[in-house]
Prior knowledge:
globular, 722 residues
Amino acid sequence: xxxxxxxxxxxxxxxxxxxxxxxxxxxxxxxxxxxxxxxxxxxxxxxxxxxxxxxxxxxxxxxxxxxxxxxxxxxxxxxxxxxxxxxxxxxxxxxxxxxxxxxxxxxxxxxxxxxxxxxxxxxxxxxxxxxxxxxxxxxxxxxxxxxxxxxxxxxxxxxxxxxxxxxxxxxxxxxxxxxxxxxxxxxxxxxxxxxxxxxxxxxxxxxxxxxxxxxxxxxxxxxxxxxxxxxxxxxxxxxxxxxxxxxxxxxxxxxxxxxxxxxxxxxxxxxxxxxxxxxxxxxxxxxxxxxxxxxxxxxxxxxxxxxxxxxxxxxxxxxxxxxxxxxxxxxxxxxxxxxxxxxxxxxxxxxxxxxxxxxxxxxxxxxxxxxxxxxxxxxxxxxxxxxxxxxxxxxxxxxxxxxxxxxxxxxxxxxxxxxxxxxxxxxxxxxxxxxxxxxxxxxxxxxxxxxxxxxxxxxxxxxxxxxxxxxxxxxxxxxxxxxxxxxxxxxxxxxxxxxxxxxxxxxxxxxxxxxxxxxxxxxxxxxxxxxxxxxxxxxxxxxxxxxxxxxxxxxxxxxxxxxxxxxxxxxxxxxxxxxxxxxxxxxxxxxxxxxxxxxxxxxxxxxxxxxxxxxxxxxxxxxxxxxxxxxxxxxxxxxxxxxxxxxxxxxxxxxxxxxxxxxxxxxxxxxxxxxxxxxxxxxxxxxxxxxxxxxxxxxxxxxxxxxxxxxxxxxxxxxxxx
Length: 722
């Protein structure tokens, strides 16, 4: 019953709690205080009751609440203005998780997912209305559905609605939907013994209760008061619990410590103290901190902003391209513009720098620094500067800027609107080019980092964790062919508690994770050879072989068709793999299979929502479909969720019924005082099971070719002037 919670990035792995707190509190600029507050369940709401309010899109919140015997740990995401999702672990302190021999005295843990949809927003005369469900799948311990309306009157926000299930257990009225169909009159029991599936036989069925309340913004800006009518009478709680409710009226006071921290204290059921802590931020509105650790861009001679005589590179004599010191130029581009130069060429009056950007998250910033460096060295025979962006030896896109107009913009003689007409992004290789300089790749690279991984919600302990020291190395035979590997050494863990192996009726392709985590203190998670190739216009290929991940070795390949500037792509991958030994060295076990997927990627253009739909064969030799839906904001933050359904039944798959998870990804550039192209990625999979299990490939072509999407360049062109 173990959930996998991990943070991944291109350079380091960090503890989830550390990075979450950094995202929410430590590295954020001040933000205006939001007009919403959260309830015990992490939803935007009152105390127990949700409201029709929504957080701003891009909002991320962690809420911890305690009211005997429940402790809720909630993570809430707002990917779209009208969708709120909440993911929760609940601890029931008066019930044990399981037998003492297995779980000790650990309290019972329950996982749940909530979803709220706003049907319409508030107007002058009409309230906002939302519909939602709490604990909509799995065991349904807190399963509830509701419809609520909210209307603001000055400092008072009024909410009223109806609730079914746990939230509406008081049952004030018979089913208000029974007139439409008699099936709504009775709420079916939980027929899903495996958990994880949606409890559709219960939605909006049975008696309902009135819910609602008032939130009052006091004259003290940081203090709000809440009063609500609780629709639950607590006589029908899960796990056989039954509590006395002295009053259906709950009251609370919320104090906003700062723009990122809320504290609440109050009474529920008439005599039970409640306390809540909420940490929140808006990832979509977060701006990068000042890059105090970055080198200053080269000053450009002759500008009003640099009236003093230039020093160093800016004082060089401008020369014809054929007369330049190419090694010095390539070094300057690497150190100041962050480009690992591959070659430099000329197309008439255009100078083109080909290479892999490795420092700056925004392509426009790379282009702006490149233009400064070139302007200080190249004579007036060149009037266009272009960066031909490559990744793993594959040309992806070209960003170009008109030299005179760029200098005018630096000197504030034209505005951004005019500069936009003098900058463009195009597919590579559209014109003939004379190569002036080539640079061999750096053969060897390596480094060390700290790693962290954890499993949440298992029967042995709520948190099983491990800290590791990781060493990684890469050797490049060419820019399109390289070997890389990772060695991981255990530093600290509590895996001595890890004794539980989940039952499975499928081949154990993932559920033997305990053996992989506990057998050896030194492991080799990855050891592979990878090659890439541009197979044709907009067609990319990749082949790989070796120890592909901690559990599987093998060989495989991928082909991706990604038309430049289009919102769609199509890829196919195929892999022959064999299970690795538990020590994660070069030993192999007997199980082997062929796995692969055909995937269609489509950016809908609606709020930058991308849908990736895959059809294929999974590690347990089951066949099925994976659907991944994600939203990416202008600053690169990404939120998403996925689900996999295969031809194996929920009974065969076991607890969880099907594979699913949520994730969000944050560019390190938004967190650090120096520029970075790496990401911190959070992935939460409530259960690790064998059905629908996919190969964890180190590289995939869709991510490797992400810079073919011109949106990041076009939306952030102003950063070329930084």
